[in-house]
Amino acid sequence: MKHWLKNFAIVWLLGILVAAAGCSNHITATTPSTAADFNSVNSASSKSANGLSLSLSLDSNTYQSGQGVTITVDEMNTLSKTNNVSISDQWPSGESTGLLINMVLCNAEVSPFRIAIFQGEYTSSDFKTAAPLILSDPKATRLCTMFVPPTAYAFKPFSDIAVVSPNGANDSSPKEGEQIRAEETLKGYWSNDSISQFNNFDPGVYTVVAGDEWGALVVLHFTVSNTTTTTNGLTEWKSKMLADNFVFGPGIAATIDGKNYLICSVNFGTNPEGSGTNADAGIVILDIGNPDNPDEVAYLKAGQDEYVRFEGNLKLNGSVLYALTYNYLWIIDVSDPYHPKDMGKTPLTGAISIEISGQYAYVASSSETGGQALNTLDISDPIHPHNMGQITMQSSLSALQSSGSLLFALAGDGLYIFDTSVPGSLKQIGFLSNPFPPLTGVIAPEHIPPEFFDMALAGNNLYIVSGIDKLLVVDISNPAASKIITTFEMGEQGTNIIISGEMAYLLSCNGAITFSMGVENLLAMVDISNPGQLNEFNSVLLSPTFSNSYGTMIEAGHHLYFCDDRYPVIQIMDLASLIQGLK
User: Fold this and answer.
1) Quick one: pLDDT at residue 36?
2) Residue 577 DSSP SS3
3) How far is 543 from 571, CA to CA, in rounded Å?
4) Strand order in the sheet with 69-77
5) Is the dihedral of CA 40, 41, 42, 45 positive or negative?
6) Partner residues linked to 165 by β-bridges
7) Which residues pair with 269 in a beta bridge?
8) Could you give the maximum distance between any two Cα atoms of the chain, in Å?
9) How far is CA 524 from the centre of its chain?
10) Is 437 helix (H, G, I), strand (E, B) or coil?
11) Domains of the chain, start order
């Protein structure tokens, strides 16, 4: 969702941060709207006595089942002069918190307009007799930005740009104007029961109602057909619902005896889609011989009802799987995917990332003296791994990557490069400092450098996803003097990256607080054929259930899979169809 009411922001964390370190609100420069900005096929407006006009627009009249419905609401000044308007509470539903809901879920007092969707065909005179659909996941945890409530809007002439003031219509202090507009794409609604299950819009007629606090009311309708073909040339996300009440963690693709599998960790806990019973922690193995229909073939428990949360990533060394939990490294024989065997658990506190090179495993974990450490494990005997040494780090580690005798360690303060040619004796040979200034006054402590979340290696270049909407390309041809050759503005906060051929796939969130997902998640595709000049190929909105927190993006062949951390669902995308549809 795009909504540009950002003045007087005080950052506040509501509940648990989502998407690893959480997604911050993304602010973009805006230009005034005109009538041409709205879909002439399905749009309407309503004028208020104060010279404002409320516009509602849909991107189509008819949609297919599973297709997103893009709703745009805009408040515009129709006068040829600056229009100073004080806030009001004259909502068309007769109350400020009635049938209409805010398009900014965390800050209902900020937005001057609200919407509702009803299943069925209604008019402005009878929509109050119906029950609005639930457009927000009742169980979602959201990262919210708190605002000082405005008391007045000073709209520019013939524009939807207004200076938002907390001090009344006569506030003379200089402020930047904001576009009083919101946009949201919805695919469905949430059930009104204890499960709160997401449902695509069923076939039939729907009514969209928008109203503002000055009493303006706009009503539009759309129809959903009962077909499920492509949307704008794009193949829809496929979903595989599993019978067990899984809460997924990290995962990996594996080829064993010539057959392809997905291996996903399962965290202890309850997901919103399940029956309410806790799933036992462990791993689940799925046969993806038919890539569009993963088939569960095995489920190995870490321990009956044992509280386990898998962290970081999984690694496969031959037919031996290494899975990190917060308290230990779990070693599993997956040579027979239908009958995996527990080979043992090695204590490791606070383990968050693992990389394997030859007979050695490198693990980022808590150090023996506190803080973070980088461990070297000899895994030549998988049943009895031996810790050969530990290096204490100055900053928290987030990801590890190896190439030949080099080990790259991604940390909050930068990129560390180690020489691993002498087993058990890591030697730091390079360091690339985090180039971005620290964030101040946002979250204690006062100065926090933007995190480096993930990285992927392609040739002599390392692609690093940062926590402030940037993708860095680092030339590592000279490890002792690595350098940034490209800083690419993503426009969204990236959390994970996969490189396949000349395309980078980034899992990201644009920070918008959305109806259906809490935080809107995107799959961004970036052309990296020229590392010195990256180009964003396109981006698509992820399926509404995927929350991008502890879930995993996995590449296998020409497909991307998402092991969802909130639902017992595997999301599937055919990359060939996706790219072809976007051309």
Assistant:
1) 39
2) helix
3) 8
4) 2-3, 181-186, 69-77, 52-58, 43-47
5) positive
6) 152
7) 279
8) 80
9) 11
10) coil
11) 2-224 (2.60.40.1930), 458-474+486-583 (no CATH)
Please give the Cα distance from 78 to 111 (Å, whole number): 19
Residue 551, token pair as written in the block: 């879930």
Looking at residue 12, its pLDDT comes to 25
Which has the minimum average pLDDT: 15-24, 167-176, 254-263? 15-24
Residue with more model confidence, 67 or 348: 348
Cβ contacts of residue 379 below 8 Å, gap of 6+?
A: 317, 320, 322, 356, 359, 360, 361, 385
Helix (H) or strand (E) holding 581: helix 575-582
CA distances from 215 to 24, 89, 242 (A): 32, 8, 47
Rounded Cα distance, 4 and 178, in Å: 6
C-alpha–C-alpha distance, residues 346 and 317, integer Å: 16
Whether 296 and 232 have beta carbons less than 8 Å apart is answered as no
Question: The tokens of 322 are what?
Answer: 């290494």
Query: Where on the phi/psi map is residue 485: left (φ > 0), alpha (ψ -120 to 50), or beta?
Result: alpha
Strand partners, 182: 3, 73
Which string of DSSP letters, residue by residue, matches 89-142?
---TTSSTTSS-EESSTT-TTT-SEEEEEEES---TTTGGGSPPPB-S-TT---
pLDDT value at residue 515: 36
CA-to-CA distance for 98 and 209, rounded, in angstroms? 12
Bridge-based pairing of strands 493-500 and 259-266 is: unpaired
Question: Token pair of 555, please?
Answer: 């590449």
Check the CA dihedral 499-2-17-396 and report its sign.
positive
Model confidence over 178-224: pLDDT tens digits?
Answer: 888 888 888 888 887 666 677 888 889 999 999 888 889 999 999 98
Q: Which amino acid makes up residue 219? A: V
417 - beta bridge partners?
408, 430
- Count, residues in the chain: 583
Other CB atoms within 10 A of residue 223 CB: 14
